[in-house]
Fold this sequence. Notes:
Layout: H1 16-31, H2 40-46, H3 51-72, H4 75-78, H5 81-84
Amino acid sequence: MTLKAYTLTKQQTLPLKQLFGLSVGAGFSVSAMYYNQPIIGLLSHAFQVKVSEAGLVAMLTQIGYALGIFFLVPLGDMVNRKKTDHF
């Protein structure tokens, strides 16, 4: 399997498969932050901590995600893409 790098002009769009894959990946990564919220009571009982302490898991996960977006996304505009293509 070979990977192709696409350079899009203003009139072009992403291929449908690639757009669908990116959408599904983004949806899964965001939904993973919310999976623990309905079971916070069970988690607090299983780990023998207060419900408020178990709720910190959800809060810190969302704060970490927001900080990651805030600090990492602008790097895509500042770093030359050709430098990172070797990964």
